Amino acid sequence: MAPVRVNAVIQARLSSTRLPGKVLRPLGGRSVLSWVIRAAQETHNLDTVILATSDDPTDDPVADEAARCGAVVVRGPLDDVLARYVKAVREHPCDAVVRLTADCPLHDPAVIAQVVAVWRADPTLDHVSNFVVRRHPRGLDTELVRVAVLEEQARIATGGHREHVTSNIYTQPDVYRCGGVVPGVDNSDLRVTLDTEEDAKLLEGVVAELGDEVPSWQALVALLRSRPDLVALNADVEQNTTPTT
Predict the structure, then answer these.
(1) Domain residue spans in the chain?
(2) Was domain 6-234 assigned CATH 2.60.40.1120?
(3) For residue 211, with 0-12 CB atoms within 10 Å meaning exposed, 13-18 middle and 19 or more buried, which class applies?
């Protein structure tokens, strides 16, 4: 029997509407994108780490940076993120794919690994995430989907579901088998994603305190709970209720 493979696919493009170019912004001496790639590479139960960006020439710098960081690069339609994911898993076959977004530089490899471990323990699950019941800070969102289900979505998903990739899955628990990683303490009021200049200031403050190494989510939460001045930097940013960016 062939080994079960789980690849990571990181979506990124430069044409963000709220904060253009955010994935290549410097953070602690490296790009935001490189933080995400490094976290995936340090996740012990992942196989190939793939960057899925568009084939638009404006995203050439994203592809170049990902390759420099050691990720495999797959390019596809600018406005069809789901199609990019399907292309990635067809070019690099696997049984399940972990979806990460490139504007979440503080991903914790332990959280990613936990999501993967839940699925590896029960590969009949269609989707596993840490946000269907949200307890982790926003910006640590991790999800896994079976490739067969992803291929199905490529055939049936329309509209916003093609942008958000998995939203047509986890919103239908009567159709798809979904599992979750749910920590005991609720820290979902904290925000460490990058979508605004206020977010950037908070992330810079976190890295100034914790350094350039990948932080654990526990260390991140401990810092933010001890530093309400940091939390206040982006406390007024409106949260996106969809766990994507």
Answers:
(1) 6-234
(2) no
(3) exposed
